From TrEMBL:
<feature type="compositionally biased region" description="Low complexity">
    <location>
        <begin position="265"/>
        <end position="278"/>
    </location>
</feature>
<dbReference type="Pfam" id="PF01734">
    <property type="entry name" value="Patatin"/>
</dbReference>
<dbReference type="GO" id="GO:0004623">
    <property type="term" value="F:phospholipase A2 activity"/>
</dbReference>
<feature type="short sequence motif" description="GXSXG">
    <location>
        <begin position="45"/>
        <end position="49"/>
    </location>
</feature>
<feature type="compositionally biased region" description="Polar residues">
    <location>
        <begin position="429"/>
        <end position="443"/>
    </location>
</feature>
<dbReference type="GO" id="GO:0006654">
    <property type="term" value="P:phosphatidic acid biosynthetic process"/>
</dbReference>
<dbReference type="GO" id="GO:0016020">
    <property type="term" value="C:membrane"/>
</dbReference>
<dbReference type="GO" id="GO:0004806">
    <property type="term" value="F:triacylglycerol lipase activity"/>
</dbReference>
<feature type="short sequence motif" description="GXGXXG">
    <location>
        <begin position="14"/>
        <end position="19"/>
    </location>
</feature>
<feature type="active site" description="Proton acceptor">
    <location>
        <position position="166"/>
    </location>
</feature>
<dbReference type="GO" id="GO:0001676">
    <property type="term" value="P:long-chain fatty acid metabolic process"/>
</dbReference>
<comment type="pathway">
    <text>Phospholipid metabolism.</text>
</comment>
<dbReference type="GO" id="GO:0035727">
    <property type="term" value="F:lysophosphatidic acid binding"/>
</dbReference>
<feature type="region of interest" description="Disordered">
    <location>
        <begin position="399"/>
        <end position="451"/>
    </location>
</feature>
<keyword id="KW-1208">Phospholipid metabolism</keyword>
<feature type="region of interest" description="Disordered">
    <location>
        <begin position="265"/>
        <end position="286"/>
    </location>
</feature>
<keyword id="KW-0325">Glycoprotein</keyword>
Length: 451
């Protein structure tokens, strides 16, 4: 909720490969209401939302962000079975590009300005991290916040010696105060900036503060968050975020009605693409033409289609340029139906060879971390066996806390969200979570303050 009198914060939800939506939201705010971003007290983010928040605070250019996201989509879709292919390593991709794109003083730029949501493996509690001592710590925190167990790997990464996984598993839309936080999500639900659901179904699903409208559009987006669609569809989702932000600004009186007549770059006529008949039948259907706004045109409600003339020419130009860059000649050949059929027929022969090569590369890269990971695997095995024995014989064996200290060469300095200033995270309309006692029992006390 936007409250100018009490100040405000922004929270970007985790959404996997749908991070293009956050790019559209930030682009609209920077162009039409820059004070909302400039005067925000705090940014929050989980998973891809944390990635976008850090990229914005570090001052990365729009074309750079779009370029990195497009390369990630291309890498995921270049394999025959997509993100399930053993050679696709999202963690290595993120770590490499974060080290390459983030400035050397990234930890100074974001410390105290953004809270990254993490899920501690030992007890499943949510941890918010906001203080960083080096660029490497920023990268480690972001990798931990994006790590989905089994989808990204078996051994979770560590931050300051403690193992963490995707922050969306414990708190997908973190905030301190719901009344002063602008929540952003590409899923239609109880968020400030989100798509409007066209379904009349009033069912909602609430899990780890992930409150979404139960409809076919959200089911499709949930699948695409893990298995990315074509770049054109994600470009349309980016435009959708821009338009949803305009609606939010108008409803809250932050800015007046959007100015019409924003023209596209020379050689690209937006009016022609809008006047042409739609060539798709549903939001998730692949586009057959080059019009970048087909999916947006179909997903908008009838009374919102007039705002299509207000799209940012800069955003449209960057997206169009990136879509054309990804349309290589070799890709057009590989996307032909005969070539696709042939690739799937040969999959039983090619997949074992590619899997063996990927396994050898993983083992070589894993060698420096083998001792630490082996210790953690032993600890995890002991904890699992203890839980099983406790469930089988509850009276004969005392229960061992799941949050007992993990073996690590370094002491953990991470603290649970309940120790942060401003109180614990709030669920909407509910009291505070009260995790302080449980956290103090499982971890030694540390100095108060935000990490």
């Amino acid at each position: 909720m936007f409250d100018p009198r009490r100040g405000w914060s922004l929270s970007f939800s985790g959404c996997g490969f749908l991070g293009f939506y956050h790019v559209g939201v930030t682009c609209c705010l920077s162009e039409r209401a820059p004070h909302v971003l400039r005067d925000a007290r705090m940014f929050f983010g989980a998973s891809s939302g944390a990635l976008h928040g850090v990229a914005f605070l570090c001052g990365l250019q729009l074309d750079t962000i779009i370029h990195v996201l497009a390369d990630l989509i291309y890498s995921a879709r270049s394999h025959s079975i997509g993100t399930l292919h053993p050679s696709f390593r999202v963690v290595e991709f993120l770590r490499e590009h974060l080290h390459r794109q983030l400035p050397a003083d990234a930890h100074r730029l974001i410390s105290g300005r953004i809270c990254i949501s993490l899920t501690r493996v030992s007890d499943g509690k949510n941890v918010l991290v906001s203080d960083f001592q080096s660029k490497d710590e920023v990268v480690d925190a972001l990798v931990c916040s994006c790590f989905i167990p089994f989808y990204c790997g078996l051994i979770p990464p560590s931050f300051r010696g403690v193992r963490y996984v995707d922050g969306g598993l414990s708190d997908n839309i973190p905030f301190f105060d719901a009344k002063t936080t602008i929540t952003v999500s590409p899923f239609s639900g109880e968020y400030d900036i989100c798509p409007k659901a066209k379904s009349m179904n009033f069912l909602y699903m609430n899990l780890t503060q992930f409150s979404v409208h139960f409809c076919s559009e959200n089911v499709y987006l949930l699948v695409r968050a893990l298995f990315p669609p074509d770049l054109k569809v994600l470009g349309d989702l980016c435009h959708q975020g821009y338009l949803d932000t305009i609606r939010f600004l108008e409803e809250n009186g932050v800015c007046s009605a959007p100015l019409p007549g924003l023209n596209l770059p020379p050689g690209e006529s937006e009016s022609e693409s809008l006047e042409s008949p739609p060539r798709v039948a549903a939001r998730g259907t692949k586009t057959e033409g080059d019009a970048p706004l087909d999916h947006v045109h179909l997903s908008l409600l009838p009374w919102d289609k007039s705002v299509l003339t207000t799209l940012s020419p800069k955003l449209t130009k960057v997206l169009s340029k990136e879509i054309k860059r990804q349309q290589r000649f070799t890709d057009k050949i590989c996307n032909c139906l005969p070539v696709k059929v042939l690739s799937f027929v040969m999959l039983p022969c090619t997949l074992p060879v590619e899997s063996a090569i990927a396994l050898v590369r993983r083992l070589v890269r894993w060698l420096p971390d083998v001792p630490e990971d082996i210790l953690w695997l032993q600890w995890a095995t002991v904890q699992m066996c203890s839980r099983v024995m406790t469930c089988l014989f509850p009276t004969s064996r005392p229960q061992i806390p799941a949050s007992s200290q993990q073996p690590s060469p370094r002491d953990s300095r991470a603290c649970p969200a309940s120790w942060l200033p401003g109180g614990d995270l709030h669920t909407r309309g509910q009291p505070q979570r009260g995790q302080a006692e449980a956290a103090q029992q499982s971890h030694p006390p540390v100095r108060p303050g935000v990490l």
